[in-house]
Amino acid sequence: MTIEIIRQTVGDLVRGLDQVVVVGDPGVYCVDALPLRDSCQGCVTLIDAPARAQSAIRSGAVAIVTSESIDSVACTQIVAKDVHAVFTHIVGRFRPRDDAPAFSSIHSSAQIDPTATIGSGTRVDAGVVVGAGAVIGNNCHVMPGVVVMDHATIGNDCRLFPNVVIYEHSKIDNYVNIHAGAVIGAHGFGYRQIEGRHVLTAQLGYVHVESHVDVGANVTIDRGTYGVTRIGEGTKIDNLVMIGHNCHIGRHNLLCSQVGIAGSCQTGDYVVLAGQVGLADHVTLGDHAIIGAQAGVMENLAGDQVYLGSPATSQRDQMQIMAVQRRLPEIRREVKTLRRELDAMRTAQAEEAKQLQSDPPSDADENRQATSPADHAEDHQRCIPFRRPAA
């Protein structure tokens, strides 16, 4: 099997871009566009710092994207103010992806309830199931194996990747991407103990995902008990995140991989939860709070601060704790030394006390101690004063 390599010139790659200057030969051919770490012979790569230019040369790259011309580099240079935007465009020329479905269609194997509504320009792939009363908006792409249950609503320009499950009454607004295996609107983890058995509480709420939200692969977002579990506009959720029932996630949050949020939590706007952060139930985080990786949040935290550790405390407090922890081996050695010295002092005191008990005072010492102050005064009167002889 022969794999065809698409060759494109630098001039072709940047055609149509504004504020781009080509330094060198625009006719040089490129076979791929790769980041510097993966760059190879004949590719175009990205240099976001002049100090990395030599690494690009050694990789065999025939062109680089850079924010300023580098005199020490002999290959063709694509100079642009926003290097990442230009490099994104170039990579897309080699590996194009359509954000919108290529055509409107409903696959013959899809099961669409007669009462469901499918918008114009929407593509429904093989094996999709759409329940009664469900609504899917315009220009959406519903990929193979997706299940949209009864009375769920999906807005315009959404993409549901394979095997996504949208439970009944869930609401998905416009421009939402939900990646493979995600489950939106499952029952919350709420139980009451009745006569020694755990009985599921009411699961009558729903999930509302607002516009421009990205939901990663295998994310689970549980429905509210009676009301809504809300994901705010513009929030981005990484893979393998779990969000419990009744949570209200603010606008433009960033939830990194393996974050776990227990029920009834609330986050402000622009909150960042790093990888493996855990929130106990009924916790509130203020706007712009940043929680460091693997932190455990047990109580409400104010906004505009960075928190670390488990239980999570402010960055300043946590740094002091970490500084003390790093000194623990040294402190342990000092304590052991002090303990030995204290034991030696106690041993010496015990030996001295034992010596005193074994050597009782002599009779002379007792007579000296028994002499009265009057006897000492009489002895003083009998003393003859000493006079120095005349010269």
Itemize the secondary structure elements and their pairings.
Elements: E1 8-9, H1 10-14, E2 20-23, E3 29-30, E4 44-46, H2 53-59, E5 63-66, E6 76-80, H3 83-94, E7 105-106, E8 111-112, E9 117-118, E10 123-124, E11 129-130, E12 135-136, E13 141-142, E14 147-148, E15 153-154, E16 159-160, E17 165-166, E18 171-172, E19 177-178, E20 183-186, E21 191-194, E22 197-200, E23 206-209, E24 214-215, E25 220-222, E26 228-231, E27 236-237, E28 242-243, E29 248-249, E30 254-255, E31 260-261, E32 266-267, E33 272-273, E34 278-279, E35 284-285, E36 290-291, E37 296-297, E38 306-308, E39 313-314, H4 315-326, H5 328-358, H6 363-370, H7 373-381
Parallel strand pairs: 4-5, 5-6, 7-10, 8-11, 9-12, 10-13, 11-14, 12-15, 13-16, 14-17, 15-18, 16-19, 17-20, 18-23, 19-24, 20-25, 23-26, 24-27, 25-28, 26-29, 27-30, 28-31, 30-33, 31-34, 32-35, 33-36, 34-37, 36-38
Antiparallel strand pairs: 1-3, 2-6, 21-22, 38-39
The biggest sheet amounts to: 12 strands, mixed
Q: Which spans of ≥5 residues are poorly predicted at pLDDT below 50?
A: none
- Share of residues in helices: 10-25%
Q: Examine the secondary-structure arrangement and name the CATH architecture of the domain at 167-320.
A: 3 Solenoid
End-to-end gap: 133 Å
CATH class bucket of the domain at 167-320: Mainly Beta
Structural class: alpha/beta
* CATH H-level homologous superfamily name of the domain at 167-320: Hexapeptide repeat proteins
Strands of the widest sheet, in order across it, are 7-10-13-16-19-24-27-30-33-36-38-39
User: What name is given to the CATH topology of the domain at 167-320?
Assistant: UDP N-Acetylglucosamine Acyltransferase, domain 1
Strand content: 25-35%
